[in-house]
Write a structure and sequence with these properties.
- The structure is a single chain.
- The chain is of the alpha+beta class.
- Helix content is 33%, strand content 22%.
- The chain is built from 2 helices and 4 strands, in the order E-E-H-E-E-H.
- The protein is globular and about 50 Å long.
């Protein structure tokens, strides 16, 4: 049995983090984080197994970091903006 995990992304520049969700695939999460890192964003992925101690995402915290809802989406928008600047505009 594969245990469920919390997928967390930390933004090192703003010292914020977001617990993304348990409903995504670990490979998809890792690939998206690598894409953000290659775009030049300073992000760190953290994967914590769901346990009694971390049964709720509200119990997850990191010293020196604040929780930011929507961080994952904001980082993807930043990455898209950087790509547009680098490669020029394209049709969506």
């Amino acid at each position: 049995m594969i245990p469920k995990s919390w997928y967390i992304i930390k933004d090192e520049n703003t010292r914020t983090f977001e617990v993304v969700d348990t409903g995504i695939n670990e490979n998809a999460f890792s690939n998206r984080v690598i894409t953000l890192q290659r775009a030049g964003l300073s992000v760190t992925p953290v994967i914590i197994p769901v346990s009694n101690r971390h049964a709720s995402k509200e119990h997850i915290g990191f010293t020196g970091y604040t929780r930011e809802d929507g961080l994952y989406e904001r980082l993807h928008q930043q990455q898209q903006k950087l790509m547009k600047e680098q490669f020029g505009e394209w049709e969506e």
